[in-house]
Design a protein that fits this description.
Elements (H helix, E strand, L loop, with lengths): L1 E7 L19 H17 L5 E5 L2 H14 L5 E4 L7 H11 L6 E6 L3 H10 L10 E6 L14 E6 L6 H4 L6
Parallel strand pairs: 1-4, 2-3, 2-4
Antiparallel strand pairs: 1-5, 5-6
Helix pairs in contact: 1-2, 3-4
Length: about 170
């Protein structure tokens, strides 16, 4: 079973004087949402084997928060080509970077590329607001075989603002 987890970066801060869009940090609320989504990943039992994030400050901070609360213990790879990447660019990065032994991959990126990738791989249009998580099962034996035409199955989409209180308090979501 090969699974792709996509997390859109958590809410960023516009008020801290970042020099550029690439350098915007997470807001306090964004960090809290990223930690909640990491905890959800742990409760779902889908802690990734490998994590790759755009090099934008907000995506790397989101990835570190998710890693902390999901139980991920590996190295988070920062990948410049994922910054504002299209679905096709995300797939090229996956084929180029992902280890062959990684059965479950988590990408922390941006919209509209993340939403478009969910649509392209599953045929489902899903909104991915900040810190949202999408889980896709893929019928591939290796990441090298992943194409824009691969027909995956959307297992679920979770959004921080719509998690039930039970899930937010640590109960099993499904």
């Amino acid at each position: 079973m090969t699974q792709l987890l996509l997390v859109r970066h958590a809410e960023s801060s516009w008020g801290e004087g970042a020099a550029s869009d690439h350098d915007r940090p997470l807001s306090t609320r964004g960090r809290e949402a990223a930690l909640r989504m990491g905890a959800l990943i742990a409760r779902l039992g889908v802690t990734p084997d490998q994590m790759i994030a755009s090099t934008a400050s907000r995506t790397l901070a989101t990835a570190h928060a998710v890693a902390t609360s999901s139980g991920f213990r590996g190295k988070i790879l920062g990948e410049r080509s994922l910054y504002l990447a299209s679905a096709a660019e995300i797939l090229r990065a996956i084929r180029r970077i992902v280890r062959p032994d990684a059965a479950r991959l988590l990408i922390v990126g941006h919209n509209p590329g993340s939403e478009d990738l969910v649509y392209r791989l599953t045929g489902r249009i899903e909104a991915l607001p900040t810190a949202a998580l999408a889980q896709i099962e893929l019928p591939i034996e290796s990441w090298q075989a992943l194409r824009i035409s691969t027909a995956g199955t959307l297992i679920g989409v979770w959004r921080p603002k719509t998690l039930s209180p039970a899930v937010a308090n640590g109960e099993n979501p499904g």
